[in-house]
Amino acid sequence: MNNNQNIQGTFTKSGTNIADVKSKNEHSGMTYNQIKNVLAKTTGNQDEGDYSQTDIANVKQNNQ
Fold this sequence. Notes:
The protein has one domain (1-45). The chain is 44% helix and 6% strand. The longest helix is centred in the middle third of the chain and has 11 residues, at 32-42. The protein has helices at 18-26, 32-42, 56-63; strands at residues 5-6, 9-10. The chain has 3 helices and 2 strands. It is mostly helical and 64 residues long. Residues 1-31, 43-64 are annotated as: Disordered.
């Protein structure tokens, strides 16, 4: 058996159980990018690639 392996899984040099971390990540919920997409879709913007529908020129004009 390899030095950094045991019955429970593979460990990093600092002692982190890699299999345990991967398992917890799978069950931890949405990723940052998934949340961004949900927020974009539920706040009026249907295009995931463009998160803001703000008309910058209009905002600048209104702020003058």
